[in-house]
Amino acid sequence: MVHANEYGFLPGNDAEKNARALQAVVDLGGEVIVDLPGIYDLSETVEIGDDTSILFSKGVKIRRQKSSTGKTGVLFLNKGCDTATYNKNIRLIGLHIDCNGVESDDSYENSRLVGLRAQVGMIYVKRLVVEDFECTGLLHKDYGIQISAFEDIRLEHLSIEGNKDAVHLGWGRGFVIRHGKFRTYDDPLALNAFDYATSNTHVGWIEDGLIEDCYDLPAGSTTGFFCRMLGGAWCDWQKGMQVQHSDTVCHDGYVYRAILRPDGTLHTSNTPPSHQRPGEIKSYDGICWACVRNEAVYDCGCRNIVFRDLHLQKERNIAFHISLNYDSYARSYSQGCKPIPQGNLTFERISVENKINMLLCSNYPSEHIAVRDTDLKDTKIDFRAARKIEGLSYPTVDLTLERVNRKENSIASDEVHRVRLIER
Questions:
Q1: 215 vs 213: CA distance, rounded Å
Q2: Can you tell me whether residue 311 is helix, strand or coil?
Q3: How far apart are CA 417 and CA 97, in angstroms?
Q4: pLDDT tens, residue by residue, 307-355
Q5: Do 75 and 120 meet the contact criterion of CB atoms below 8 Å apart?
Q6: 42 with 20: CB under 8 angstroms?
Q7: Whole-angstrom Cα distance, residue 119 to residue 42?
Q8: Which pairing describes strands 87-93 and 96-98: parallel, antiparallel, or unpaired?
Q9: How far is CA 218 from the centre of its chain?
Q10: What is the mean pLDDT of residues 288-298?
């Protein structure tokens, strides 16, 4: 156990001096304690390695400042992010961040890893715990917490406010998000197995999770959903294929994503991407490709997740959305693919406490969904095929309702995305 204050991490110090001091003590590993109350200015990324805990005592607040280098990045980051090396056994306890008008430079040229944009980023991590986390003042680019390429993470007692996503998960397995209060303009919870290429570090399945006792707090305006589950499917690279920003391909056992202007312009790809270091970007035929996985995977989505004891206090059009994205920023479906449906999703004791038009909506192939012990009130559950996408097939959704109070015609579908309703 070491005390960071004894290493020069102190309230009143300038932001760069504090960054050097905290990094020096964190590099020692083990348990690091910050127990002198006060506001600590911090400007540079603090990198955390294996078997390291940082415990912030009551009254300690981290206030972001801009980096003197002009390239402001993630505030707390694991050391293995750059090299695709898993870090293990990291704990952040009692971290309270005031964003103070500072966010990452999210351009792919300056980002540590394309798609990384958060106050706390953990990429390639196993056995992570974040407890008693508070973040205020999120701007328009950074998420509060962003985690991808993960196994076994637990996030508890969260309070996050601002404009961007509160918790943004990418590819990973085994997670708990519990006791959270969120007031964000964008999605409080983003389970984005797929996303824009500059918003996600990876593509891959998000599975085996529990989200419980969380609040979508009321706010004056909003976009997005309380929780979004975004999936995708792609194919092998082919000579002469037309690609736009965020298009995804497999080639020679690796997954690549196109980094272009998000204006919908199509570019002809005649040379396959062949670099093989995850995170590396190279240009072929004027198309920048980011290598994002060193294994051949062809689809992604969310499965085996329980949502329990959630309080929907914010007025929204849709609370939970099982999404397919198809616009100038990203096409999460490539023609001719057969995506694995997102499913095995359970919603228990969902409390509708404001006007919400649709509790659950899906335009992505889905299956095996259950809703239990919930009063739908005036909300609906709606399944619709994505528009203007040829060749995409949808299985019939098995929708199980157990002890659900609902109005007539509260379950809707179209002739493509059909529902088999089971009521108990």
A1: 7
A2: strand
A3: 43
A4: 999 999 999 999 999 999 999 999 999 988 889 999 999 999 999 999 9
A5: yes
A6: no
A7: 12
A8: unpaired
A9: 21
A10: 95
